[in-house]
Amino acid sequence: MSETNNREPITILGIGAHVGDVELVAGGVLASHYLKGDKIATLALTAGERGVPAGRDMAEYREQKVREAHTFAGMLGGEARVFEIPDGEVPDDQDIRLRVCDVIREVKPNIIITHHRNSMHKDHATTHRIVNDARFFAGLASVERELPHHFASKLYYGENWEDAVDYVPYVYVDFDQKAFDLWIEALSTHWFVTGSKSFNYMDYYKSLARVRGLEARKEYAETFMIAPENMKLRQSEL
Fold first, then answer.
1. CB 92 within 8 A of CB 133
2. 53 in Cβ contact with 191 (< 8 Å)
């Protein structure tokens, strides 16, 4: 997503509906940027506690998910934030947009990564709309909040198996074995990635990173979409 030579470090903010969403779809790229000296931050609008293992207390599992968010971000030299909103109940209103706006102004990211617009999970689709509007509000000086305005110049939508409808890879971002290994080590701290009986998250996303890497003629890669209005190649000749 950026050149590594002769540039200032950048900040990337990943915003997911649940703890683990951004870590899965963009963790390799986040690890790669961390190894290049960039700053990483994550925000989960919910902990994702309704995926609680059978026989476990949901409140305790929520606390575990929050710890996992901080562990993952910490292993990439970054910081995590988790809102207290219950899993499955992300509100589609102005208040949540302004809360996310405030986080954007606090973190001051150059790049934001979030969900694609379509999903089988309503929290994902709602988060997509929230982040698009929150980025807009964060960049407006006329939206007066505690912190001054900040505009994140780039917005990407990650490739999530739950957000597959109409998802078409547009941007391929490759990373090397060192970043891949760090990503997988950090991802392994999430119980649902290694212990879920409903879907083999680890194998899927490891395999996807290799497939996308092959398509990009590289070792590993993750793909992203951008807003349709930005899908323009500008050039003076063929």
1. no
2. yes
Query: The tokens 């990943």 sit on which residue?
Result: 14
* Helix, strand, coil distribution of the chain in percent, nearest 5: 45, 20, 40
Separation in Å, CA 22 to CA 16, 44, 94: 5, 8, 23
Tell whether the model's pLDDT for residue 5 goes beyond 80: no
**Closest CA relative to residue 132, chosen from 154, 160, 110:** 154
In a domain, 237, yes or no: no
- Reported as a pLDDT band with limits 50, 70 and 90, residue 138 is very high
Is residue 234 within 8 Å of residue 162, measured between CB atoms? no
In a domain, 4, yes or no: no
CATH of the domain at 22: 3.40.50.10320
Q: In 3D, which of 57, 55, 54, 64 has the Cα closest to residue 19?
A: 64
In a domain, 51, yes or no: yes
Among residues 105, 80, 65, the alpha carbon closest in space to that of 195 is found at 65
Which residues are registered as beta bridge partners of 155?
112
Per residue, the 3-state secondary structure of 111-143, as one string, reads: EEEEECCCCCCHHHHHHHHHHHHHHHHHCCCCC
Using pLDDT thresholds of 50, 70 and 90, give the confidence band for residue 162: very high
The end-to-end CA distance of the chain, in Å, is 24
